[in-house]
Design brief:
The complex is a heterodimer of chains A (286) and B (182).
Chain A lengths: L2 H12 L3 E2 L1 H54 L15 H10 L2 E11 L9 E7 L2 E8 L2 E9 L4 E6 L4 E6 L16 H7 L3 E8 L2 E8 L15 E7 L5 E10 L2 E11 L18 E2 L3
Parallel strand pairs in A: 7-13
Antiparallel strand pairs in A: 2-3, 2-12, 3-4, 4-5, 5-6, 6-7, 8-9, 9-10, 10-11, 11-12
Helix pairs in contact in A: 2-4, 3-4
Chain B lengths: L3 H10 L4 H23 L2 H17 L10 H27 L9 H5 L2 E2 L2 H11 L3 H12 L4 H8 L3 H19 L6
Helix pairs in contact in B: 1-2, 2-3, 2-4, 2-6, 2-7, 3-4, 7-9, 8-9
Classes of the chains: A alpha+beta (286), B mainly alpha (182).
């Protein structure tokens, strides 16, 4: 064994610092408190905005009807330019998205500097209201697949690279339906934050209108070093999101995320959500 | 190498699981404290930066950004905070050094973290290294990060990191003077 190897062994073994019981509990308490506080804040925002939609829906319809009637009566329709008003009613977009039976989309993340490596190039995601499947691609190969099921509170992760898998049962606190992390809640999150509407833009041949927020609450609050950004583009024709873009600085790294190639209100085959573990894979569940 | 338990923990954590967060804490808190002590050689600062890293991590549960290796991600959070802490302490120290006597209440903080004499000796020796070398040695040896990952963290070339590692290990060996055996 050479000197460097000896020193490595010494450092690995002896550079060993542990928290006392008191410190361990104190830090854990602070961490879980923060987590709970963040969750409470986000849940309250979601509930508030959901309630606001219910209240606003008749008002929006009434307002639209009133404007049309008034315009016809006054003979002013010819003066209403198509570019002067948003063609997207965001509250209705939120409703459509929430009512979507299933959605498929691609997600691409970039981190600069990419210190973490080992990530996938992109993921292809299938979401229903209670089940999801994520296929992580490196190049053109799937290197991992994750299934989750809120009905059975179970999850399965298959690591194709190492030919192994893990099955887990979720704790009782897991939701019965997907919450903040799923794309269905995206519009609600935008509307619950400070935001501005963007003008029209054509994305992949689809005429869209956008909404943008730089409110830290969109990503869970806190006091980030730079304002984060999130932007969503919605098809004027279908009223469904076409592209989501996110940017933020977290721990001195610049993160960007794009979700695109959405297929909304898709009836997803149940077999998609059944974990498929190839023969010979090793079960390394804890 | 992908730690499959970590992949699942990340995934559950991003969906709001408190238990996943508690498990991540349980799994990595001692390792991160070891890293923080190796970088800072101060129990109170080490505890602060580790707690701060975990609190920030908890706050960002529903955000994106925990891609790749969770262990390396947390270590980088701690290393970034340790560097910030040293910078701010140095600038603060420059201002008050002449007026404030050395703290005498270190005993209270010492009781928060538990380590033996060999560890204390190693931390003292590491503290003698230039910070960049210390960071490379600790992250590579204790945290098992690759030179490439460390190069990205430090914003330098892999060759520079390799040099820092080599010089750091040589100096550490000289400081320990051969009286520590594995």
């Amino acid at each position: 064994m050479n000197d460097n190897e000896k020193l490595r062994q010494i450092l690995t073994k002896d550079l060993d610092v542990r928290a006392s019981d008191g410190a361990y509990d104190r830090m854990l308490h602070a961490v879980l408190e923060e987590h709970e506080s963040t969750r409470r804040t986000q849940s309250a925002k979601t509930l508030t905005i959901a309630g606001r939609f219910v209240m606003k829906k008749p008002m929006i319809r009434f307002a639209i009807a009133a404007v049309i009637v008034a315009a016809v009566i006054l003979g002013l329709l010819e003066f209403i330019g198509t570019g002067s008003k948003s063609a997207v009613v965001w509250a209705e977009v939120a409703q459509k998205v929430n009512a979507s039976r299933g959605v498929i989309f691609r997600m691409t993340e970039h981190i600069v500097p990419d210190t973490y490596e080992q990530g996938v190039d992109f993921t292809v995601n299938h979401w229903s209201s209670t089940q999801s499947r994520l296929d992580g691609y490196k190049g053109d190969k799937i290197i991992k697949t994750i299934w989750t099921n809120c009905n059975t509170k179970t999850g399965t992760l298959v690591d194709h690279y190492h030919k192994s898998y893990v099955k887990m049962t979720f704790e009782k606190t897991m939701p019965d339906r997907f919450g903040m992390a799923d794309p269905n809640s995206m519009i609600q999150r935008f509307l619950s934050c400070q935001h501005k509407e963007l003008g029209p833009k054509t994305i992949a041949g689809v005429l869209c209108e956008g909404m943008e927020t730089t409110d830290p609450a969109f990503y869970g609050g806190g006091n980030p070093p730079e304002p984060p950004m999130a932007r969503v583009w919605v098809s004027v024709e279908t009223g469904y999101p076409v592209q989501f873009e996110g940017e933020r600085v977290y721990d001195e790294a610049h993160h960007t995320l794009v979700q695109d190639q959405f297929q909304w209100d898709t009836k997803l085959d149940a077999s998609l959500f059944e974990p498929n573990i190839p023969a010979g894979y090793i079960d390394i569940s804890p | 190498m992908i730690d499959i338990e970590d992949e699942l923990l990340k995934w559950r954590f991003r969906r709001g699981s408190r238990e996943a967060l508690a498990r991540i804490y349980e799994k990595y808190v001692h390792l991160l404290l070891s890293v923080a002590m190796g970088l800072l050689n101060d129990p109170r600062d080490a505890e602060d930066v580790v707690q701060d890293a975990f609190v920030s991590f908890a706050r960002n549960a529903t955000g994106f950004g925990i891609r790749g290796n969770l262990k390396a991600f947390l270590a980088i959070c701690v290393a970034n905070r340790a560097r910030d802490r040293l910078r701010s302490e140095h600038s603060h120290k420059r201002c008050v050094d002449r007026y404030v006597p050395e703290s005498s209440d270190a005993g209270e903080a010492d009781q928060s973290l538990v380590y033996n004499e060999r560890c204390e000796r190693l931390n003292q020796a590491l503290a003698e290294l230039p910070y960049e070398q210390r960071e490379v040695v600790v992250l590579k040896v204790k945290q098992e990060m690759t030179l490439r990952q460390i190069a990205r963290l430090q914003g330098v070339s892999i060759g520079t990191v390799h040099g820092r590692y080599r010089y750091g290990m040589e100096k550490l060996r000289a400081l320990l003077n051969g009286d520590m055996e594995p």
